[in-house]
Design goal:
The radius of gyration is 30 Å and the shape is flat. It starts with a strand and ends in a 7-residue tail after the last helix. Helix 4 packs antiparallel against helix 5 and helix 7 packs antiparallel against helix 14. It is an alpha/beta fold. The protein has 16 helices and twelve strands. The protein has three domains: 108 residues, Gyrase A, domain 2 (2-Layer Sandwich); 138 residues, Four Helix Bundle (Hemerythrin (Met), subunit A); 159 residues, Rossmann fold. Strand 11, helix 12 and strand 12 form a beta-alpha-beta unit.
């Protein structure tokens, strides 16, 4: 990272009422000197200044680019920890182009790279790596739950947990190294027990933290719900009713759905991917057999199953092979409007939810039960949810080193085990040299962030 002042458009490029251009670096305040009539010395921090913006105030034939609202954040009281200026201009392409082009001509200014503002914030101690990841997740959040988890991570939930483990190990390491410096001193038995107890507790805490059913993948990519059942049960009608749009073709012809049709739904803040699958039956059609195989694969991989059947033609027993060891499913009896009251009661007693996908009857009952299942899953998950695969890998590496720790072997080797465990946790938070992973983390950010 060089010392040049960087700039970038921080809002989406295109026609809009307002656009925001961010500048950060040692020369950021020079924007006022070069582009406005307000000297930097007269600029008040964190106050909006309504000013004409020029291409170069020093030239006699200067041209006004726009009338803008400019606000300055002097170091270290800014997002990046550097002097920062934000230009709020009109969002036309012409205005944005002209301002960006003018900034490019200022000395020691250059266009920011993807994620560079956040990267500078990390280097200046404004963000740890978990908070940076939380910021990226907040930008990508599409549901209220994703937003909530991202904000928790930005506030330091994960950092506090990981740093507590690391600090305990660092403290223990300092004691071990003290005994290395004085090899004639034996480690007291109570100290040995205390160290072994600390390692045991941290190992157990990390293992429990890792045993979260990979909730982070579901939060980011969506919980997967498959709609499965025989042909003509009404699976396509159900997914259309849930999504409130025609995502699947509805037909009385058996075998119409041959591929997996997926639709993303924000279900009470939960990111859910509903999958409509081919009807389960014996078939000699080569293409349909492929679809049936895909349906079975989706059933096996799904987080929750909606086993749908035509209540006027079938019974829930047709799903018996799938229910032997399952608890993440719901039996859904479709076309219940064709049943007698006694038939309806019999199905209810078997744990079925009665619906009519065609008439929209009890669709919300189904979706409410799906949401309740996942909310219960989240309630049982740790309060601090792992949100990145690299966290999982680093924590697993930490456990491996702690498993090797033994004060009965050479004390230098025992110290190295703890040092490597500390380093593994530090890869998550940035408390060690982690340049090799920074590019991977920040490259996923948009240019102006």
């Amino acid at each position: 990272m060089d010392n040049k002042t960087i700039y970038a458009l921080s809002t989406v490029f295109g026609k809009s009422g307002v656009a925001l251009i961010r500048i950060s670096g040692t020369q950021a305040m020079q924007v006022f000197a070069h582009l406005t009539d307000l000297p930097p010395s007269k600029v008040i921090d964190r106050k909006m200044h309504y000013l004409p913006l020029y291409n170069d105030v020093a030239t006699p034939n200067r041209q006004m680019l726009d009338r803008c609202m400019l606000v300055a954040f002097r170091a270290p009281h800014s997002f990046t920890g550097e002097d920062t200026v934000e230009i709020n201009c009109h969002g036309s392409k012409a205005v944005i182009h002209s301002i960006i082009d003018t900034l490019s001509q200022l000395p020691d200014f250059r266009l920011a790279e993807p994620g560079e503002f956040s990267r500078r914030a990390f280097y200046n101690g404004k963000l740890d790596l978990t908070a940076a990841d939380g910021l990226a997740d907040l930008i990508d959040a599409e549901t209220a739950l994703q937003q909530k988890v991202a904000l928790q991570q930005m506030s330091g939930t994960l950092f506090s947990l990981y740093d507590e483990w690391r600090n305990s190990l660092v403290s223990m390491l300092s004691h071990i190294e003290a005994y290395i410096d004085f090899p004639d001193e034996d480690i007291p038995e109570n100290t040995v027990q205390e160290m072994e107890n600390t390692v045991f507790k941290i190992k157990q805490a990390i293992k429990k933290h890792l045993a979260d059913n990979k909730i982070e993948e579901r939060l980011r990519d969506g919980f997967r719900v498959v709609i499965a059942g025989p042909t003509n049960a009404g699976k396509s009608s159900l997914i259309n009713a849930i999504t409130k749009r025609n995502v699947a073709i509805v037909s009385d012809i058996a075998g119409t759905t041959r591929d997996v049709i997926e639709s993303y739904v924000d279900l009470n803040g939960l990111p859910i991917i509903f999958s409509d699958t081919a009807g389960l039956r014996d078939s000699d059609d080569a293409i349909e057999k492929i679809g049936i195989r895909l349906a079975q694969e989706k059933i096996a991989a799904a987080d929750f199953k909606l086993f749908l059947f035509d209540a006027s033609a079938d019974s829930p027993q047709i799903f018996a092979p799938y229910l032997e060891s399952e608890n993440n499913y719901l039996l859904v009896a479709n076309k219940s409007d064709k049943l007698t009251p006694a038939e309806r009661q019999a199905l209810i007693e078997q744990g079925c939810v009665l619906i009519s996908a065609k008439q929209g009857e009890n669709i919300t009952v189904v979706t409410d039960k799906v949401a309740a299942y996942f909310n219960n899953m989240l309630a049982q998950a740790p309060s601090a949810i792992i949100t990145r695969q690299r966290y999982r890998e680093a924590l697993s590496e930490c456990i491996e080193n702690l498993e090797r720790f033994d004060l009965n072997k050479e004390i230098e080797l025992a110290a190295e085990d703890i040092r490597l465990a500390c380093r593994a946790i530090g890869k998550i938070t940035g408390r060690v040299e982690v340049d090799e992973i920074l590019d991977k983390i920040f490259s996923s950010f948009c240019i102006g962030k």
